[in-house]
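Researcher: Please translate sequence to structure tokens.
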Amino acid sequence: MIYPLIGIPAIEKNPLQPFMQYAYTRCLRRAGASVQFLSRNISSDNLAETTDKCAGFLFPGGPDIHPKLYGRLAQPGCGRTDPAQDSFELSLLGTAIKAQKPLFCIGRGMQLLNVAFGGTLLQDMKRRQEYPHYDLLHRAYATHPVDIDPDSLLGQVLKTDTITVNSLHHQAADMIGDGLWISADSPEGFPEALQIEGYPFCLAVQWHPEHMAANTPVQQRLFQAFVEACR
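Model: Translation complete:
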């Protein structure tokens, strides 16, 4: 498999869709993969077939996950949600995990992973943050440091126990789902990366390496490691 096919849930109902999708595609193609964006209109009958066809899956950023999925009511500060997208991505994620496919979960994707394992989200972290955790204008540059567990997959890929990252989120993983563990966190203690216990390959990060990779080669390593696992 020279160019493994990576499946990505399509970022629908967003005016920035072409720009956002290009950022992921650029990094994956640079790492030697091909990409297929998956419409949420795919039938359940075709979901297993799609999972078999794709070598791995990247779950991207996007809108807030509806609080009902982790047993909460919406609180002030919770942003726009898209229940249909939530349902599709959770189904796809569950099917991919059952098939033991390599996973790369970014931003919302990391939060989705936590919810899928029974975790909860902090719906708005602005009052508890010390660093700016949503800085769209400077998305290609680092805004705060992250401490990494050197024994984690993330630590092995990046070969460091600290890194500086960008930030494009106002929510964070709160209670961590069963079977997950925190592999990196911010100085305030917000989870910045998760890992599935005993899973073949899963990178889940809260920051957005697709915007940093062109200027910060260490961030491209995440895409390279993911594609190698898919290959």
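Researcher: Any highlights?
Model: The radius of gyration is 16 Å.
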